[in-house]
Inverse folding.
């Protein structure tokens, strides 16, 4: 596997990339750095640890189509072949051949799960090398796998310490955009703990957060601020003088 990785400014200088958090950007670079020569990576936790990124940052990369995730847990960098081109004598084919067979490659070099106009099966664009007695050849695309990949965006994922809050990737990203990271995190924690303690049930947690959880979080914070208003510390001499004035005891 090659030791050097490159990046095209067409991706890293794009508005979609720049508007992501610094942690999500760092995670993207680390995923690229540790990917194999076809852009596949199964060391997700290590990349998250090195970049100090969270699961939410990983989901943002998926939602914005900077990475493609497979059912096996492996990811591939969508724009890998826009970033990197390797000579045949330095290229080592990926071990994730099943995932590779599900991909297509567009004329601009980006990977795709669905074959739109201007894309070819990945095997047609790869350096032709042998893996033992088996060569990389064009594989048929499994339609059911592609359909499943499309449905993944509508699949609900678990959030919170108790994993009670269920949101799709789109719902999660929209809440982040609308509420901001701090309020989003507070709402997830509030609803997650509320469900754990009260057994609250709702068909749509996204709607619950928007309808009442935000208000509940704001109300709790306002109540805590009223309770925790700092009072001026009274020194002992002033306290004694006040108590005499109030007739607490006779001189």
């Amino acid at each position: 596997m090659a030791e050097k990785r490159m990046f095209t400014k067409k991706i890293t200088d794009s508005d979609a990339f720049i508007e992501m958090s610094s942690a999500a950007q760092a995670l993207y670079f680390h995923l690229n750095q540790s990917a194999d020569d076809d852009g596949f990576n199964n060391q997700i936790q290590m990349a998250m640890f090195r970049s100090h990124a969270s699961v939410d940052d990983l989901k943002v990369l998926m939602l914005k189509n900077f990475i493609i995730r497979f059912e096996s847990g492996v990811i591939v960098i969508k724009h890998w072949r826009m970033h990197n081109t390797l000579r045949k004598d330095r290229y080592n084919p990926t071990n994730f051949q099943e995932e590779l067979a599900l991909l297509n490659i567009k004329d601009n070099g980006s990977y795709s799960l669905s074959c739109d106009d201007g894309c070819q099966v990945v095997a047609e664009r790869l350096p032709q090398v042998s893996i033992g007695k088996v060569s990389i050849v064009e594989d048929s695309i499994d339609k059911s796998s592609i359909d499943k990949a499309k449905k993944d965006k509508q699949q609900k994922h678990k959030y919170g310490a108790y994993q009670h809050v269920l949101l799709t990737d789109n719902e999660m990203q929209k809440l982040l955009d609308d509420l901001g990271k701090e309020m989003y995190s507070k709402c997830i924690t509030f609803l997650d703990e509320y469900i754990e303690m009260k057994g609250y049930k709702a068909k749509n947690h996204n709607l619950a957060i928007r309808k009442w959880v935000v208000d509940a979080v704001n109300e709790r914070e306002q109540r805590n601020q009223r309770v925790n208003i700092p009072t001026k510390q009274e020194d002992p001499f002033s306290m004694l003088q006040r108590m005499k004035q109030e007739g607490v005891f006779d001189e």
Q: What stands out?
A: The CA atoms of residues 2 and 161 lie 39 Å apart. The first strand starts at residue 40 and ends at 41. Residues 205-227 form the longest helix (23 residues).
